[in-house]
Amino acid sequence: MKSKKTTVPMDGYMGTTVMGERGQIVIPKELRDEIGLEAGSRVVLMRHGKHGPVVMFPVEQMQDFMQQMTARIAKLSTLTN
């Protein structure tokens, strides 16, 4: 499976990859390096709605994000009560 980097929008990453027969995709090395993925890394896949885009997060980043959001929501709820 080959991947191809296209353009870099606003300090982000955009590229393409091809899904193999078994549903596997290759995450380009440059992107794996940037987000700290290595063999055996666990990721969370999410999609909003039936046809929304699929988003991938390393599990550790998702856990950190959820902890931050929980703290922010708790703070907001004390401000509104």
Q: Could you report the average pLDDT, rounded to the nearest whole number? A: 85
What general form does the structure show? elongated
Structural class: alpha+beta
Counting H and I runs of at least 4 residues, what is the number of helices?
2
Pattern of helices and strands? EEHEEH
What portion of residues is helical? 25-40%
Give the total of domains. 2
User: How large, in whole angstroms, is the Cα Rg?
Assistant: 17 Å
- How large a portion of the residues is in β-strands, by DSSP E? 15-25%
Write down how many β-strands occur, each being a DSSP E stretch of 2 or more residues: 4
Spatial order of the strands forming the largest sheet: 1-2
- Multimeric organization: single chain
| Biggest beta sheet summary | 2 strands, antiparallel
Poorly predicted tracts of residues: none
End-to-end span in angstroms?
A: 54 Å
